[in-house]
Amino acid sequence: MKLLKDIKKHGGIINSIKLFFYIKSGKRKRDEEIKTIYYILNNYTDITKFPKPKGNLNKLHSSNYLLLELFDTIAKKEGWTYWLDYGTLLGAVRHKGFIPWDDDMDIGMPRDDYEKMILRLPEYFNKMDLKMTFSINPGTNAVGIGVDHEHTGTFCDIFYYDSCHCENSNDIFSGALLSKIYKVHNYLLLHTKMRKEKIKKYISKNFNMNNDDVFFTSPEMSLKELYVFKKEHIFPLTNMTFENGNFPVPNNYNIFLKSYYGDDYMDYPHYGVCHHGGYGNRPPLADWASLNNINIDELQEKIKMEINKIKNY
Q1: What pLDDT shows up at residue 174?
Q2: Which among 18, 60, 155, 198 could bridge 146 via Cys, Cβ 3.0 to 4.6 Å?
Q3: Are residues 26 and 68 in the same domain?
Q4: Cβ 200 vs Cβ 178: under 8 Å
Q5: What is the pLDDT of residue 180?
Q6: What does residue 296 show for φ and ψ, rounded to 5 degrees?
């Protein structure tokens, strides 16, 4: 009788078998150990005071910061609107700079300014006494920039946000937002009706439109990457400390970060710490410069010179 009660309690024979092997394999013990570690970290340590990295990653942060300063200088010269986004935004809010284990940067731009940037930024790069990297991801149309990225590891992703106007919540289904998403991201039309219904469900669950201007990201790889924000969530932009400077961030950065990383974005992460490039035979980005015998100090001085040149145009 006790066995039957236990089986019923744990959801039937199949679930009981799963529970048995879960305990037997030692996975439950490991899960409990991991939960204990996160409990101690989040309750007895302050993630905002996590020490800065040392060695190559610290040098990469310094180079990436100068890359951001270079872009910021050009953006101001050209009148482009942009803001810190994704992990870089999280770093600004949580660490007042780079996330200690992050190794690249992220920027967001409205579509109009993004299109202007694609045309003008290479012209600036071509005039520099540096080997600049400018690439467009064919799958997402996101731009990647760097200072000789393949040898130094310096890198920044630039993402675009499309926009449209929604008169009311029904607009989501009848035209405006949904049709704009389909129009901009034509590949969505190739997916099944179920895919479209998921998008409708996602938007209706998260947004109540009433004569609002909205901005949305490229659903790059999956529905998970589709984020929609009201104009008032972004504008007017505000400035926030990032390392040694102040840079634009969305007005309601809290909504951005909750959308991207969940309500607990100020806690220690359970995933996402792995560095770019650190897989297979590809070393982490932070090690590229040293492996290619790049003198980082000289590189950074050259970037500073280019920043000053643009400021004095």
Answers
A1: 42
A2: 155
A3: no
A4: yes
A5: 55
A6: -65, -40
Residue among 15, 235, 209 nearest 109 (CA): 235
- For residues 81 and 269, give the distance between their C-alpha atoms in angstroms, rounded to a whole number: 30
The 10 Å Cβ neighbour count of residue 64 is: 25
Examine residue 175 and state whether it is found in any structural domain, yes or no: no
Q: What ranges make up the beta strands (E) of 218-290?
A: 228-230, 238-242, 245-249
Beta-sheet strands, E only, within the chain = 83-84, 105-110, 132-136, 143-147, 156-168, 210-217, 228-230, 238-242, 245-249
Q: Which residues contact 186 (CB under 8 A, 6 or more apart)?
A: none
Average pLDDT per block of 10 residues along the chain, 313 residues long: 47 53 64 82 91 95 98 98 97 97 94 94 96 84 90 93 66 49 48 54 58 62 62 94 98 93 90 67 90 95 96 88
The reported pLDDT for the residue numbered 142 is 82
pTM of the shown model: 0.82
Tokens of 147: 């200072």
Q: Which residue type does 256 have?
A: F
Q: How far apart are CA 227 and CA 260, in angstroms?
A: 8
Q: Count CB neighbours of 58 within 10 A.
A: 14
Contact 210, 152 (CB under 8 A): no
Which range marks the domain in which residue 70 is found?
Answer: 51-161+233-311
If asked whether residues 123 and 261 sit together in one domain, one would say: yes
In a domain, 228, yes or no: no
Same domain, 98 and 240: yes
Counting the structural domains of the chain, the total is 2
- List the Cα angle 96/106/67 in 5-degree steps: 80
- Residue 88 and residue 96 in contact, taking contact as beta carbons nearer than 8 Å: no
The reported pLDDT for the residue numbered 196 is: 56
**Residue linked to tokens 């080997």:** 131
